[in-house]
Design a protein that fits this description.
- The chain is α+β, with helices and mostly antiparallel strands.
- It is 54% helix and 22% strand.
- It has a 4-stranded antiparallel β-sheet with strand order 1-2-4-3.
- The longest helix is centred in the N-terminal third of the chain and has 55 residues.
- The radius of gyration is 29 Å and the shape is rod-shaped.
- The termini are far apart.
Length: 161
């Protein structure tokens, strides 16, 4: 390759050198800069989706008002295990297919994992659990599921009182 390059005229060497520099520049842009720009755009889109979800959660929280799970609710002392309450209410509200894990956490708490679940139905279900069974969400971790209105979430529900 070097002998071929040295056999070229000075003008041809200059043109080949310039072409090589342009190819190197194009490779740097395509393999170095473009992936960074693409990843940044994806990150900005994810942040935008999370902000929209947060706005919706705040709007629903304002609509539902403060949630208190006092022990004064008559059905909170019904003696049903939390696993039974969660199983029965998820089936009744159409959330059973999305419930991937439920694990008791002591006598008065249960941990749940729901995947690709409808956000609005989960919020209504949590309100129902609070009103009818005295259960409150003491820990919640929500992520978008990639489809508008769908979330993945980890919940810890506790019995009030």
């Amino acid at each position: 390759m070097r002998t071929w390059f040295e056999q070229l005229d000075a003008r041809e060497r200059l043109l080949v050198s310039i072409a090589a520099l342009l190819v190197m520049f194009a490779l740097i842009v395509l393999l170095g800069v473009r992936p960074i720009v693409t990843q940044t755009a994806r990150g900005e889109a994810r942040v935008s989706q999370k902000r929209q979800l947060l706005t919706e959660v705040e709007r629903l929280a304002e609509r539902l008002g403060p949630q208190t799970g006092g022990g004064a609710i008559a059905t909170s002392g019904d003696g049903q295990s939390l696993v039974v309450v969660v199983d029965r209410t998820t089936r009744a509200n159409g959330l059973a297919p999305y419930l991937k894990r439920n694990q008791p956490d002591g006598a008065n708490a249960i941990r749940l994992r729901l995947e690709n679940a409808p956000f609005d139905i989960i919020i209504e279900w949590l309100g129902l659990l609070s009103a009818q069974h005295g259960l409150t969400a003491t820990a919640v971790n929500i992520d978008t599921a990639g489809v508008a209105g769908r979330i993945n979430c980890n919940l810890t529900l506790s019995r009030g009182g």
